[in-house]
Design a protein that fits this description.
This protein has 9 helices and 8 strands. It is an alpha/beta fold. It has one domain: Alpha-Beta Barrel (TIM Barrel).
Length: 212
């Protein structure tokens, strides 16, 4: 069984979560073609039960919309909640080990910040990687300056589908795609939007550039 295709739009949740996340996610995914959006669930600081309950609630909403759910880092929760895959941080378990445990039917994503990271992720069997931070963003400031479009362009030539992350929004999304990104990822751009479905549609429009 082959894993689903890497997402064209990757909606990353804020680690702090929030009671309105499920409803906001449902709103973001309305009237979206099936199989093109994935939600990466993060909930740092949640108890094991809270994490599982939220993952299952998101799984129901995301599945009903015909989209994909990936769980950050916690492969055990991803499998127990019936998620479509797992997203591994740079210091997480190796993609090959995740594949052995999760099987071939789930997506394995990896966080990458350089061409060398991407090459390692590809060699280890990842299906795709987030790459960034492409632009300045508060959530990634502690990790250093943004990498920019040039390194993204270089890394995209290695053959692993990359999803641009970090300061990506509807205004600069086309630049990220033009630099070689397979898809676009965001945290604030969709979580802070009064109508997140508009952000998703604009991101999907930008990724259409790769087909022209």
């Amino acid at each position: 069984m082959m894993p689903p295709r890497p997402p064209r739009v990757y909606l990353v949740t804020d680690p702090s979560g929030g009671s309105g996340l499920v409803g906001h996610t449902a709103a973001a995914l309305r009237e979206v073609p099936p199989g093109v959006v994935a939600v990466q669930f993060r909930a740092r600081g949640a108890t094991g039960r809270e994490f599982m309950d939220m993952a299952r609630a998101l799984r129901a909403v995301v599945s009903a919309a015909g989209q994909l759910l990936l769980v950050n880092d916690r492969l055990d929760v991803a499998m127990a909640a019936g998620a479509d895959g797992v997203h591994l941080p740079a210091a997480g378990i190796p993609p090959g080990e995740a594949r052995r445990l999760a099987g071939n039917g789930r997506l394995i994503g990896v966080s990458c910040h350089s061409a060398a990271d991407v090459e390692r992720a590809r060699g280890a069997g990842a299906d795709f990687a987030t790459f960034g931070p492409v632009f300045e963003t508060p959530s990634k400031r502690e990790y250093g300056p943004p990498v920019g479009l040039g390194p993204l362009r270089e890394a995209s030539l290695l053959g692993l589908p990359l999803v641009g992350l970090g300061g990506v929004d509807v205004a600069n999304g086309p630049e990220v795609v033009a630099a070689g990104a397979h898809g676009l990822a965001a945290i604030r751009a969709w979580l802070d939007a009064p109508d997140p479905a508009v952000v998703v549609r604009r991101f999907l429009d930008a990724t259409e550039m790769r087909k022209r």
